[in-house]
Amino acid sequence: MMKYRIIIAVLTMLCMSATYTAFGAGLSKQFQPYISLKEEYTDNLNLTSENELNDSITTIQPGLKFLNMDETSGIDLDYMIGLVYYRNNNDLNYVSHNGSLSAKYLTKNRINFFLKESFIRSEDPREQEFFTTTADNRYVLSTQRERAVYWRNVIAPTAEYQFGAENRLGINYRNNTYRTDNTASQDSQENFINPYLSYWFNKQNGIFFDYGFTDGDFQINPHMTGHKANARYTYRFDAKSSVFAEYAFTRRTFESPGLDYDVHEPVLGIIYSLSPRLMAMIQASYYWMEPDTGSKQTGFGYMGELHNLDPRTTYQLSLQGGYTEDYFTSQNLGFNKYHRLTGSVKHMLEKNISVGGLGSIERAEYSSGQNDTIWGVTGTGSYMLFKWLALVLEVSHRATESNVASSEYAENRAMFLITATY
Prior knowledge:
Largest sheet: 20 strands, antiparallel, barrel
Structural class: mainly beta
CATH topology: Maltoporin, Chain A
């Protein structure tokens, strides 16, 4: 483990020292303190199939933002701490944390540094995928069945050498640490190293290679070592459209015998810009998973994405299917067949009034034989009462239907948020 700590320390210091210049003049103008008061109601606190508990939750959230990002350097920081109070279940009161950091520094010598970090301390049964936004509407498959505090810290520095407009040789590193008080879950830690190469022979023909090495430690489950190699060729017709073909190979090995498996997946895809603000991507694949013991699993994979960035109306749709791997989560569900459709939309009615919605439906087929359909819808509305005062109202319904009765649940939730910014 020492070698991974040395790697993360060196890369982090490089990234942070490189972005130090971003803290120049006008520092105080770039800080933005804020405070929020959030009131929530849920009719199924622990997401259980029976004996549902309802409760009202009050959260006081002071926070701080810092932003000075430009084309070559800068930092985007947002951190808040929450004092969380339950009206009917005072023993669940706790302190939450939520922070995100993005930094970059592009040097004149074409050596670039990037840094991302995400930290969360929460007890929400469903955890959002790290490095995603609320609009992405993506959650990990694993779901806690009790209110228990967990925290996750993910730090990911990158260093790369740019030797052309689109040519890059670099290395990513990720340390993903998960700790939980849930008696049914376990602590885990991921160390991931990912060298990559992007090279374009000309404006039409480009290749991309990357390799990922994963070292996974679990409190109870056997230690995991992972390898993933990927090669992609892209042909660009013009500035708007391109096609690509790639092949990915994944190997997972565990200290306990009988758990190892390989995954092969050839992929074909199309990327097309319908307009400067509307982008679409479609890909299809066929995969086969070969375990060291047990039956081979095969299937078709697919992915489609549509993003619209119009200033008045933004929306995105994402369709994904094939297989997924769930590790370093509250349940560590491993390799599963998977289908997911997510979407979000936000529309500005007036300059200071907006409405929006989120929706998702997921189908998971686990190796254990359990099959779940997970779905949810959310409606939101916001009103900027003053330049410094914002109001948000949100109502949602989410549920899981399963062939295992104890895994089923339905929850209705309402939330009101008021935020004052200095």
